[in-house]
Sequence to fold (232 residues):
Amino acid sequence: METFVKTQRQISCMKRAAQIIDNAYDALLGFVREGMTERELAAFIEGFVRGNGGSGLSFDTIVAFGAGGAEPHHVPTDKKLEKGVLVTVDMGAVYDGFCSDFTRTFAFGEVGEKQREIYRIVYEAQKLGVAAAKKGISCCNLDSVCRDYIEKCGYGEFFIHTTGHGVGELIHEPPTIGRKTPPEVALEDNMVITIEPGIYITGEMGVRIEDMVVVGREGVLSRIPTELVVVG
Ligand SMILES: [Mn+2]
Fold:
């Protein structure tokens, strides 16, 4: 059977790619201001990655304000940032041919009770998924860990994609962490996967939180916490 296990060299490249993105995210939180557009923030990320050791982006950066966050693959627009919205940023760098993949959602200004509640559900689901991403769990059961929690909270129909995927030279590699993955496909040490549950409410809002995880001792590659941060 095909193996999705990564070598130490491949893992260290992905670690470096993840560090570049952590630094880009910190810089973004210091850069973001009211009135900036989704496109400006995406361009900032691209410039940061290229200026700080990345050879490029793993994929086109997603920056989504408010209702734009309800589209998992939102393409940045000229919409201007206003206070009181959630902002989702999904981005990755390439380092020596290997990709990173990272998503955080933050609040720009104070957000309402519903936004906080949705955030809390995704935060808990993602934490459960990361904790369960250990050697031996089948990928479909790992998907259920996140999905069952979101369903239990009443938002199952709004979690409209799989829980995660492998990462390597390509941004999306096997195994898929989804309910349709055959039960015999299980995690092994040194596979590198993402855990990225989300809730998407059309016309209103979205939240996604994503970390890359090296199965085994290394664990989560990002140093950026997943708790809700309020900026501005
Ligand atoms: Mn991803």
Summary: Residues 3 and 191 are 9 Å apart (CA to CA). The mean pLDDT is 97. The two ends are 50 Å apart (CA to CA).
